[in-house]
Amino acid sequence: MPAKNLDLHGNVPDNSPVALVLIDVINDLEFDGGDKLLKHALPTALRIAALKAKARKRRIPVIYANDNFGRWRSDFQQVVEHCLTDGVRGQAIAEILKPGPEDYFVLKPKHSAFYSTTMDLLLQYLQAKRIILTGFTGDMCVLFTAADAYLRDYQLSVPRDCMASQSAAENRKALQYIARVCKADTRSSTSLDLVKLRKRRS
After folding, report:
1. Which positions ≥6 away from 69 have C-beta within 8 Å?
2. In sequence order, what are the residues at sequence separation of 6 or more whose Cβ sits closer than 8 angstroms to the Cβ of residue 24?
3. Over its length of 202 residues, how does the chain's per-residue pLDDT go in tens digits?
4. What whole-number distance in Å separates Cα of residue 88 and Cα of residue 84?
5. What global pTM score does this model have?
């Protein structure tokens, strides 16, 4: 596939060997266990926001991978608006991590950001070989996405301080699995060398 072809509808303006993916961070959390997740997700959101700011400064593309909540006629902007204005449990997190006009988004029908989505195609156009996975929940959607990324031969970074689950113990187990099976770098976000990752081409 050509990296840049202005005749193709899938052409994207960014080009980077690494991309930052935010999984299900725009979420109303109005479900059983949402209060437990909020406890861990709120401080995690602040760290994800700091990482996102650094990534944008280094011209690393940011991709939001978000559930469609079973609403097949929904779009991402509707989900964002709902979480920001309807007084939902996840509003504070949405305010911290609301997307900007330069960000990309992928709506996903299931746990993995790759299952029946355009994620793989978007990453190909970006020419990304490594993805930095962050978001909620670590023991489900981040885990499934990491496994699918690994099967597609992407190099993985999953910062341990940028992933949250309803249970801290289950979050740790998921991180250990992602590191062992998916060969992910799970060092903290403050230890990631984004400049080095941005320059890397293999």
Report:
1. 79
2. 65, 66, 67, 135, 136, 137, 141
3. 444 555 555 567 789 999 999 999 999 999 999 999 999 999 999 999 999 999 999 999 999 999 876 554 567 888 899 999 999 999 999 999 999 999 999 999 899 999 999 999 999 999 999 999 999 999 999 999 999 999 999 999 999 999 999 999 999 999 999 999 999 999 999 999 999 999 876 4
4. 8
5. 0.91
Q: Where are the domains of the chain?
A: 18-199
| Amino acid identity at 57 | K
Alpha-carbon span 150 to 164, nearest angstrom: 20
Tokens of 147: 């496994």
Would you say 130 and 18 are in contact if contact means Cβ atoms under 8 Å apart?
A: yes
The position carrying tokens 């031969």 is: 153
Provide the CATH topology of domain 18-199: Rossmann fold (3.40.50)
Distance in angstroms (rounded) separating the CA atoms of residues 74 and 91: 18
